[in-house]
Amino acid sequence: MTLDHLRRNFLQKLVASAAAVPLLSPYRTFAQADRASTGSHPGTTLRVALMGLGSYAARVAEAMQSCKRAKVTGLISGTPSKLQEWGTKYGVPEKSRYNYDNFDRIKDDADIDAVYIITPNAQHRDQAIRVAKAGKHVICEKPMAVNAKEGQEMLDACAEAGVKLLVGYRLHFEPKTLEVIRMRNAGDFGNILFFQGLSGFRIGDPSQWRLDKALAGGGSLMDIGIYAINGARYMVGEDPVWVTAQQTKTDPVKFKEGVDETIQFQLGFPSGAVASCLSTYQMNHLDRFFMTGERGFAELRPATGYGPIQGRTHKGELTQPHAMHQTIQMDEMAGILLDGNTPVVPVDGEEGLKDLKIIDAIYAASETGGRRQLRLSK
Ligand code: NDP
């Protein structure tokens, strides 16, 4: 069976399952609308080079096989054997395979519109700036950078180069998440009062880059706690104005100076809503968002895993069909980058920068246990 056959089969199944379940959300995303139509869109495919061919890039590359509007057309890696293997697997010709020394040459590669940076966190800033200077759009994994200062530098470089900067916030396109947001906007929960975000797992191999401050920029908060930060914002629908935080460490050998093991933090929102969140590398079974308002509640559990996301509200189970997050994300990002579409929940550099400002404030607050004021918008 050819790739086109596979893709068509997948899309047919997706459209059939979408038709079987009434689309409850008026936020019918671009990708949903596009899949439901029969028209083709010549010349509107987002051609993406993947940078950093590790475990998450492998997931993205596989998911992109089912994309209707995005395609892997370039590869950037420090490992020659991966370039060879992935190049063959995804049909990327040698001329569009690069390493970290020579990828500035993508400037002259007419088959690449955007670079998706999926490398260790501390590398994102420099790589994004180089991609921007090469005149290509930047899609960057979370956390966008390791602090707000670096994040701002990325925004500035992209603005100067006239390219867009997006962050790989895949849950911003996830159907059950969008349904909760739709219900909130419709007033179904009444005024939001409280959000709880639990994000964590027990991390293994002590030698991995995630436990190396120089590559990770921090610890659990950078990697997994950011889901609770970002989730608090899109679930409550506001940006927090203050934060408090407490840090605990039970294993200072594994979690060295500057690498947080467990952080609890609280956020306060302009409406008076509050959030209580946990970020940890030391406990399993933590992937839950809970939100309650004056008239109802929503729970997502799992809230951020690769899916299916599951959830319920005071009105019953959420039944929106599951599709691979990265497939929807990349089709939606094609709409944003090529057509100027506006997503329901932003995925741009400003959005990534807000989370970095909160991360900076959480680390600072956890030093003293005091409250830090936040000013996320300019
Ligand atoms: P991996 O360790 O699996 O892959 C990272 C890749 O980066 C490596 O395979 C390597 O690719 C490249 N790399 C370049 N320099 C280094 C270095 N010094 N040490 C290690 N790797 C290096 O990490 P992940 O794929 O899990 O994570 C990458 C990024 O993606 C992170 O920012 C992470 O937060 C994010 N992520 C996002 C997820 C999401 O759901 N949105 C899920 C998982 C991760 P090569 O050999 O090709 O150079």
UniProtKB/TrEMBL annotation:
Q: Kindly list the GO molecular function terms attached to this UniProt entry.
A: nucleotide binding; oxidoreductase activity
Q: Which residues form the GFO/IDH/MocA-like oxidoreductase domain?
A: 180-297
Q: Which PROSITE patterns match?
A: TAT
For this UniProt record, the keywords arranged alphabetically read as follows:
Oxidoreductase
Coiled-coil features, chain-numbered ranges? none
- Return any one Pfam family short name: GFO_IDH_MocA
Per the database record, which ranges form the Gfo/Idh/MocA-like oxidoreductase N-terminal domain? 46-169
Keyword Iron-sulfur annotated: no
DNA damage as a keyword?
A: no
Q: PANTHER family from the xrefs?
A: OXIDOREDUCTASES, TRANS-1,2-DIHYDROBENZENE-1,2-DIOL DEHYDROGENASE
Family that this chain belongs to: Belongs to the Gfo/Idh/MocA family.
Protein's recorded name: Predicted dehydrogenase
